[in-house]
Amino acid sequence: MSKMAEIATIIDELRDTASSINRIADELTDLFSYSSKTPEIAPAPEKTMSLEEVRAILAEKSRDGFTAQIRDLLQKYGASKLSEIDPGNYMALVADAEVLGNA
Question: Taking the domains of the chain in order of start, what are their residue ranges?
Answer without folding.
Answer: 1-41, 51-98
